[in-house]
Amino acid sequence: MKENVKVILWGLGLMGQGMAKMICKKRGFSIVGAIDLDPSKVGKKLYELLEVERTENNDVVILDNPEEVIKEKAADVVLIATASFTKAVYPQIKFAAEKGINVITTAEEMSYPKALDPELSEDMDIIAKKNGVSILGTGINPGFVMDYLVLALTGVCEDVENIRVSRVNDLACFGKAVMEEQGIGLTKEEFVEGVENDSIAGHVGFIQSFGMFEEAFNLKFDKIAQTKEPIMANVERVTPLVSVKPGYVAGCKQMGYGYVNGELFVEMEHPQQVRPEMENLSTGDYITIKGTPEINLKNTPEIAGGVGTYAICVNMIPHVINSTPGLKTMLDLPIPVAILGDVRELIK
């Protein structure tokens, strides 16, 4: 039998811990390192933080110094769950790749990084190829629901006239960084000001999804537009992290529009909020493809964002390890599938 697939976790927030717990349940993995800057986590054993049974595959100390963990060929892959933006995770990706370790990151912009950061993307591709590793950014969205899944559905179409995608989701499963990006808990005036000065990111990913559409369809959008509006709470909405009082921002409704030859080709709607069910709102994923044939896909409730993000990252590990070196997107790799058996059997 082959050696276990060795994994390093960089970032142990909700997504990082989710990946770690999932890996602990799977056969053929060993977690050989864990990194986080939170003083309350540093020095703990990983299994203690996760509150899982101690095994030889999760008995590592959480450290705050990457240089003590990420050493030459120390792992097969490092899972980075520290930030949403390419510029923020680039130094971490570079550090790991130059040590000969494959990288998968939850950073939303990394799902299609050349959309906003072509120079950094080219640099990462060069670094990856030089060191014989692969780099991938993915997650539930961007990376799957509003782009990859949509593209797959068009594979049974003779032609496509236009596409509309809507994802109504609950943010309660996400951590502090996502809450801040969405403006949760702000006043309406603070939200509007945050949109104007770019401190409210809202959903990070529409630009990347549009980039995936352009590449996959071999077309060029002549105009891309986005809007952001606050979703105001009418009742108190409570999560483990925040309590949003009535009259304050509970989420962000974001719209994206992609035009081809002056006509709307892709419309994306993404109202993200905490605890929508507290105001009798249902979550769900909705895809309408006007073409031949017409496709209407409805999934309620939503594909859970937290589980979906950490699961797709873990499930893509074999594909990333097996891939040719370079910076990859989901378009470059085999379809994501659940790891049901021993992961070692999936490694070529």
Automatic annotation (TrEMBL):
GO molecular function: 4-hydroxy-tetrahydrodipicolinate reductase
Boundaries of every Dihydrodipicolinate reductase N-terminal domain copy: 5-106
Every 2,4-diaminopentanoate dehydrogenase C-terminal domain range: 144-347
SUPFAM superfamilies, per database record: NAD(P)-binding Rossmann-fold domains (SSF51735)
Coiled-coil parts of chain: none
Any one GO BP annotation for this protein: lysine biosynthetic process via diaminopimelate
Gene3D superfamilies per record: NAD(P)-binding Rossmann-like Domain
Keywords: NADP, Oxidoreductase
One Pfam match: DapB_N
Protein name, as recorded: 4-hydroxy-tetrahydrodipicolinate reductase
